[in-house]
Amino acid sequence: MDKYTSLKDSIRFMEKNATDNTVKKIVKQSDKEHQKNSKKQWIITGVLAVVISIITLIFWRRKNKNLHKKYEEMISKINSRKENSSIKSLEIIRNNETKGSIRIPEDTVKSLLEKLEKFEASEKYLRKDASLTWLANNLNTNTKYLSEIIKIEKGKNFSNYINGLRINFIVDKLYNDPKYREYKINHLVEENGFVTHKVFLAAFKNEYGVTPSYFIEKLKVSEQLNKAHIST
């Protein structure tokens, strides 16, 4: 019985060792496979990160290129506005005859164009209460005629027309007067007759395709480059 018990214990010990070795082999094999998979995952993750970075860089460069192009177009518009400030009355009248949905007498068209030119020069469009009715009353005309003339001449509705004048005003200020570039956006909003910050940003981007912050930043960089060029 002692020998039987000893033999039985030996068998159990051998079976246990065999089982432990098998388990160890399985675990070791699993660890190797896990390490291989981890390496593959790291490699795949690294490749994806590189690809995403390259794509992001391409889009970033393209976006910057487009923004810079719009900035250059802004500068061109600012300079061209100074050169072409006169209104082509005859062309507007011709457009009114061919495209206008409302027939407006020729003398009324001329009169309204002259009054609009004076209105734009007076900077009354900066008033927060500027509306189509208010402007029509000030120009001694009706809202239908005024709205039609603005649509034909500017290709805009009244709201976009007024906002465009306000944006052009602040753009000229930012371009010609460096102190305006130090003002906060909220101050520019208040000074230009806009009711909210959101409307100002939307109107600015609608008019020129860039944000006021981007325009100010580019002007500052350009100013620094000019100073460096002069000093050298």
Automatic annotation (TrEMBL):
Entry keywords, A to Z: DNA-binding, Membrane, Transmembrane, Transmembrane helix
Electron transport among keywords: no
Coiled-coil positions: none
TM region positions: 42-60
UniProt cross-references to PROSITE patterns, sorted A to Z: HTH_ARAC_FAMILY_2 (PS01124)
Domain HTH araC/xylS-type: 110-218
Keyword Transmembrane helix appears in the UniProt entry: yes
Cited InterPro entries: HTH_AraC
Name of the molecule in the record: YesN/AraC family two-component response regulator
